[in-house]
Amino acid sequence: MFRFLVAKTPTPVPVEPLAAVKVEPTWESSAPSTSSAPSARRGGRNSQPTLETYTPTTTARKYRLKTPQERNNSSYKVKRQRNNDAVRKSRTKAKQLQMMKDKQLEELVIEVGQLKEKLRVANDRLARCRCRR
């Protein structure tokens, strides 16, 4: 019922290469990659290393668990409470500083927009000025 016209393409004639073609190593090769993209071998974001092949690059910090007697000690409790307060204060300060920077950025972006508009108006006036001709 329907007929399609298909143009025949000429068959390519084999030609000898002018220079030797470089052979790239395969992906499974043990050659190091020069790519900047993360790979599963190097611990990319979505990599799921198996337990047999994973070796941690850093060592865990050594610490000793507190005994119940030490944890119930009043000086330990005071020390922990002071540390918790200091951490809370530090995080609150960092959040406030970030909020202040964000607000300042917004103000500067608005100011830049206003200055660009002023410059555009001044350039338009200058272009229409008769004294420059």
Descriptors:
mainly alpha, 133 residues, bZIP_sf
Descriptive report:
GO terms for molecular function: DNA-binding transcription factor activity, RNA polymerase II-specific; RNA polymerase II cis-regulatory region sequence-specific DNA binding. This is Basic region leucine zipper. With 133 residues, the chain is an all-alpha fold. The protein has a domain at 70-128. Helices cover 44% and strands 0% of the residues. It has two helices and no strands. The protein has helices at 68-71, 74-128. The longest helix is centred in the C-terminal third of the chain and has 55 residues, at 74-128. The termini are far apart. The model has no long low-confidence stretch (mean pLDDT 80).
